Amino acid sequence: MEAAQPADRVPADPTPPDGRPPVPPAADDAPTGSAPGGGAGTPAGGEPEPALVAGGDPEPTPVAGEPEPALVAGAGSPDRAATARSGRPERPRSERSPKDMALSLLVLLVPIALLLAFYRGFLGGEQPTTVDAAPAYEQARAANVFPVAEPSGLGDGWRTVSASFRTVDDGATLRVGYLTPEGRGAQLVQSTVPPQRLIPAELTAQGQPQGPADLGGANWQRYTGRGNEQALVLLEPNRTVIVVGDARDNELRELAGALR
After folding, report:
1. Structure pTM?
2. What is the pLDDT of residues 202-251, one digit of tens each?
3. Angle at the Cα of 144 (from 146 to 216), degrees rounded to 5?
C-alpha cells in the first residue's frame, strides 16, 4: 500500500486518464528551490535568489559596480544600521572652532574682571586693614609696669595695622605694627622682659649690635634682624624699646624719633 502524499505534491505519473499522452509539468508547478540547469536556491534565468536574513526580510542583492555599504562599528540600533546602509557619514558630536572656545572663555572672564575692579575701586581691595591702637596704649598705661611712649607727629602715610598689650610671667609687652608711607612694615615693641630674652626673641639669635645711632640724644643701638630686617634698640633700666622691620633706615629713624 502506497504512503499518502501531500496535497500540493505533483503526482509522479503525470499520465492523464482515458489514454491521453502525458503532459510535462509547467514551469509554475516546479518545486520551490529547484530549477532546470541550476542548483537549489537558483531561480530560472541564472540569477541567484536573494538570501533570507534573520527576521524574514530578504537581504538586498548588491548590484554590479556599486560598493557595498560599510558596517559601522558598534551600530546595533536600527537607526545606525540604516545610516550605515545609506552610506551617509554620521554627524560629529562636537565641532568647536578655536574662535568659539575663545569667545566662551571671554564670556567667563568679563564678569570676573568687573567684580575685581569693583572690589578694588569701591570696596578698597588690597588695602591694608587699619586698626585703632588707642585701646592697647590705654591698657599698657593702666598696667603701670613701664613708662609708655607713643609716636607723635607721624605723617599721614603711616598706618597702624596691629596693636596688642600682653602680660607674661617675666614681664609685659606692648606691640604696635605700622605700614610706612613706602608700603613697608615696621613694629614698635616696648617691654619689661629682660633684654637677654627679648632681643633674641624679636630679632632672632642672629641679631647683633652694629653701633650707636644718634636719635635726639638717646642711646639707640643699630641691630641686624631676621632676613632683610634691621632694628633700632633702646636699653633703659625699666624697659627695652625696639623699632624693627624691613622699612628703610630713614623710616625706622622717623618712627623712633617720634616717640614721646
Report:
1. 0.55
2. 999 888 899 999 887 789 999 998 888 999 999 999 999 999 999 999 99
3. 35
